[in-house]
């Protein structure tokens, strides 16, 4: 790379343009992809990566700094963990030793291999552990007389735009630790306020902190759905090198600092296309603002370096980009690794990842060595003293005044110099103290986790429960021992005395008890709390065997291990079928639960659909009534108009009769009045004719109108019939139990079911009068389910609204945060957001008690308003005026 050409130069003020290094890595097929008989769509040759879209057979080709083929081990160019470390991370470490900042981040869809690349698994260690170990190995080989190394680390997670310290379990007050915030130092730039920064002196120090951090992540991930795929984890090492140089036998310290940021980003699918086009942002929730903004920053930087014009870079729009300001377009040597799946089913996401990575290729950073200002000052002071000494020597003989002046200055500089040196010594002392404090805190944190039941060292004969997580990185990280006698399980609260303390909405205060009597282990469910063994919800004490799956409260998955039982079975001959616990992973437990809970889940989904249809029918009924009502009132208006017209006609006739009577009486005057009479008669005749015509027209209009209404009523009735039939069929099917074909049953439905239960539990516990339902939106045309939403019903106000699944997920995360913090006041706007479109609640509305306002909202239902829009009632006024003006 061009940036390396000058790296061994002595110039410490060196500033270099350095391109962001971009690599792509393709992983092997997962078991699921293998089972689907997937074909690979990716090929690599040199630094080129090509994707063939199986749908169109079109080939897309991209070129990066590196293309890593990790698809099959037997391939001659297979990229192992070690090889990737060497190619991508070793140069970064070299730069860090030179005093530059370094950064590496992994981008890609969930399950594509980000964590495998960054952290790795057991023997397949990834970049982070390799780099840390390498760092300490290199330090050990350095001459300690010449360079002092000092290392600190931090490890945090960005989730929902909040920063969670992974190295602190509980705040000093014993309360749950609050999220941290980003601040900006005028000189040093953005930083996380209050973040734990631990001094580390060996690789094993880092390992134990990482273990602690990963246990915290695993604990947090169980409480929040999809948390691990939606969060970014940032591991930072800060290295300070103090080089001891001697100038004229005097010690001269020279300090270099560098930050090494290693980042495992959230799954790229958390920032879908709909988000980038701004569509869903209208909802007021961003699923992952940090990832969205990272894309914007990369795109802006790439444009900037291509057209050479200074552009606004929206670093401050998200927590992650603000913190990574220096790593992108700033003072850092940065690399990115984009991970992709080889499977055809991921083609679209893979292409989007490759395009994203391509943009990053053109970003240019400006890296410079970070030299400590104090050290430079000392050097400058020393040079100054030397100069003055020389001047002093020459002035000694000539000018005593000047001599005294020089002496004074030298003294004051020496004082300053000593001050600086004392500062450095003080810093060393402070570091040592910090190190000791960190060690103490680590022990306290471990104790705290152990109090919650999480074991650190496995006792190899006690039975235990190990956690299973959707994210393999967080699976089998938490270990809970089952001691002889009773082990109680319950919700984690400040005063909980339970042996195993779990967080989570659906975990009851006293959830279950596990009994271990001479190696026989059984689990006893308590009251309402849900406990599943091998997928089935249990109501009675159940004996556990090695490899059994235990699920508590809906989303805490465990595998039961019984080492003694394994030994026994191994000794007996027929035990081979028993030992496949390697397959009893999260995927296995989840599928088993899905199959066992199928009936339950299906009836839940059907319930939602039935409800949706019933509501639809109800609104058709209401629309019908409205039409009926309109018709009646129109008819009444027409009839009264006809009556009044008829009365007028009668009046005119009566007037005419009187006129004729008068005519006879005043026969003598006839002649005189002949002319007037003729005129009057003409006028009367005309009036009568006009009124007759109007009556006729009004009658006709009424007739037309009635026919028109009758047609609409007929249509609505047919509509109602159709829905009623659908409902009938649904109900019939439910009775028959043959329905499996119509309902797409999947993992997401089960997850949604658990999430809805959680939301209802929180609402109930906080007294929020809000209930949540699964709502299957039905397409107007086809009558089939077009999308799934969550219906939010405020039973106190009798109003209802609908949330998309993404919005619901976001809101639930916020609810859980509030629930955990026990601050129910702030919950108000989660449960009732005035910005939502609320409608009167249909479900309990009796059709007869219709209000106008209510009717208006029914019109929003397209299927019904479509029918009603045809009803354009002509105002009576118009008929009259048009006739009058027409005659
Ligand atoms: P992500 O962090 O991107 O969600 P993971 O790193 O957890 O994905 O990988 C998902 C699964 O794929 C894990 O079980 C992991 O062991 C496996 N995997 C990923 N990359 C590789 C690879 N290069 N070689 C072998 N297995 C891999
Ligand atoms: Mg991961």
Automatic annotation (TrEMBL):
Major localisation: cytoplasm
Domain Kinesin motor: 19-363
Coiled-coil residues: 374-452, 591-733
Amino-acid positions noted as binding ATP in the UniProt annotation, renumbered to this chain: 108-115
Highest rank taxon of the organism: Eukaryota
Subcellular location(s) per record: Cytoplasm, Cytoskeleton, Spindle; Midbody; Nucleus
Family matches, as InterPro entries: FHA_dom, Kinesin_assoc, Kinesin_motor_CS, Kinesin_motor_dom, Kinesin_motor_dom_sf, P-loop_NTPase, SMAD_FHA_dom_sf
Swiss-Prot/TrEMBL GO biological process terms: microtubule-based movement; negative regulation of apoptotic process
SUPFAM superfamilies for the chain: P-loop containing nucleoside triphosphate hydrolases, SMAD/FHA domain
Example of a GO MF term: microtubule binding
Quaternary assembly: Directly interacts with PRC1 within a complex also containing KIF4A, KIF20A and KIF23; targets to the central spindle. Directly interacts with CIT depending on the activation state of the kinase (stronger interaction with the kinase-dead form); targets to the midbody. Interacts with ARRB2; the interaction is detected in the nucleus upon OR1D2 stimulation. Interacts with AKT1; the interaction is detected in the plasma membrane upon INS stimulation and promotes AKT1 phosphorylation. Interacts with SVIL; at midbody during cytokinesis.
PANTHER family associated with the record: KINESIN-LIKE PROTEIN KIF14, STAR-RELATED LIPID TRANSFER PROTEIN 9
UniProt protein name: Kinesin-like protein
Organism: Pterocles gutturalis
